[in-house]
Amino acid sequence: MLNIAEALKLVLDHATPLPAVPTPLGDARGRVLAESIVSDIDSPPHDKSIVDGYAVIAADTADLPTELTILEEITAGAVPTRTVDPGWATRIMTGAPVPPGADAIVMVEQTELAGEHVRIVGRSAKTGQNIVRRGASLTRGQTVLQTGKLIRPIELGLLAEVGRTTVSAIATPKVAVLVTGNELVAPSETPGPGQIRNSNSSLLCGLAEQASGGDVSNLGIARDNTAELERAIHAGLSHDVLILSGGVSAGVLDLVPKVLTQLGVAEVFHKVNLKPGKPLWFGVCRHTPNNQTLVFGLPGNPVSSLVCFELFVRPAIQMLRGLPPTGLRQAAAKLTCDHQQRGERPTYWPSSVNGETVTPLSWKGSGDLRSLTDANCLALFPAEERIFHAGEVISVLLLEA
Ligand code: AMP
Ligand code: MG
Questions:
Q1: Strands (E), 15-165
Q2: Which pLDDT band holds residue 343 (cuts at 50, 70, 90)?
Q3: Does the C-beta of 300 come closer than 6 Å to ligand 1?
Q4: ω before 276 within 30° of 0 (cis)?
Q5: Does 270 score more than 90 pLDDT?
Q6: Is 359 in the pocket of ligand 1 (CB under 6 A)?
Q7: What is the number of the ligand closest to the CA of 365?
Q8: Which of 50, 174, 288, 306 has the most Cβ atoms closer than 10 angstroms to its Cβ?
Q9: 251: Cβ below 6 Å to ligand 1?
């Protein structure tokens, strides 16, 4: 059986960044830039005042207090019309252009208004004080963002500053979620004998939206029969990623791998040495040389589905988005209590990390989503039959909100 690292490598070997598309600024957050961005302006566009106050000649303030005559007032957006000569000052607001002749701005708090004059009190001005020079933050022709940069709100602001309303960015992956099982009923229904509510559509759509940064197609429930599975999976194969839940184990109605193969999805692996999540199935459906669907058959138990999603699906989606396929953030933390690890499979255990320490939760197995609501991480216990002692440092995957 493959180990986790081998399985992840096979997944990533089949995942490549999606093509770049022209993207309006309003849709660009969370995408990866596919071009370098060059500024069409200097910023600031003029020597500007960074305070409300008076533009002066610094030498005029050598001996304080002193009085200067007010020439004019410049607010942000206005342009100075007068040169500041010795003995004169221009009232100026934050962001406004510094008038010719002036070489310092005195904050309004260090002045007193006296009719047409301003009295400078406090400290003598130094040349250049409270002035930011034209082009100090960026200049026309400068490359301000490089290809491959993740567009966060900060980058949206900068793109707007340099006049870009559309950018070339990697497309958002189209992801579909299809759950399988005769026992499933909609959350709105009261389960009858033998039935349970479908929690995985909500869980996996939420995870996929969080990871892809886009809308996710919820394909609902397919029953455990070949015809229905074929129909539903066929619809799912028009996406970049198809996430299935259930039907990949060894039960008599676990038909998903067979149906996937029949529909032309080439199996890459089935089963990973992992707990929970061992029955994971992964394959690829090639439509054209540069267009394919990555297909993940996750085990139906909700916690198994979550663990497989975090270990394999999230990194694949990151890769398609042009991001480093690092998955969830990892950390090291000290166990607060002893923990018995059983068996030969590495185990991801729902846990609660608090600063430097981690507490494994009382967890009743892969169907126990309730306990998982108290978790903010998955703690990794390597395959060993032993007690991990309080104080031992282990590795954890930090779940995203
Ligand atoms: P399976 O992988 O199909 O053998 O399912 C394993 C377990 O997960 C069974 O107990 C299923 O009832 C449960 N299960 C399967 N699909 C879902 C789902 N969509 N929501 C909640 N539990 C599920
Ligand atoms: Mg099933």
A1: 20-24, 37-38, 48-49, 53-56, 66-74, 88-92, 104-107, 111-114, 117-120, 131-132, 143-145
A2: confident
A3: yes
A4: yes
A5: yes
A6: no
A7: 1
A8: 306
A9: yes
| Structural tokens at position 120 | 């400078």
> In the numeric block, which tokens belong to residue 13?
């070997």
Tokens standing for residue 126: 């130094």
Residue 79, pLDDT above cutoff 90: yes
Centre of ligand 1 from the C-alpha of residue 54, in Å: 72
Residue 146 is predicted with a pLDDT of 98
378-399: b (≥16 Cβ within 10 Å) or e: bbbbeeeeeebeeeeebebbeb
Cα 254 to Cα 252: distance, rounded to the nearest angstrom: 6
**Could you give the CA distance from residue 169 to residue 23 in angstroms, rounded to a whole number?**
6
Task: Give the whole-angstrom CA distance, residue 40 versus residue 139.
Answer: 8
| Structure tokens given for 233 | 């999976």
pLDDT at 289 over 90: no
- Pick the closest to residue 166 from 39, 27, 24 (CA basis): 24
Please give the single-letter amino acid code of residue 297. G
In the chain, what percentage of residues exceed pLDDT 90?
98
Per-residue pLDDT tens digits for 109-151: 999 999 999 999 989 999 999 999 999 999 999 999 999 999 9
The count of residues in the chain is 401
Q: Are 221 and 180 in contact (CB under 8 A)?
A: yes
For residue 309, the CA-to-ligand 1 centroid distance in Å is: 15
Mean pLDDT of 299-322: 98
**Rounded distance between C-alpha atoms, residue 393 and residue 335, angstroms:** 6
Round to whole Å and give the CA distance between 60 and 68: 8
Cα–Cα distance measured from residue 207 to residue 230, given in angstroms and rounded to the nearest whole number? 25
pTM: 0.94
Which residues is 107 bridged to in the sheet?
A: 53
Check if the beta carbon of residue 39 is closer than 8 Å to that of residue 138.
Answer: yes
Is the CB of 327 within 6 Å of ligand 1?
Answer: no
Dist. CA 248–CA 272, nearest whole Å: 12
Q: How far is CA 357 from the centre of its chain?
A: 25
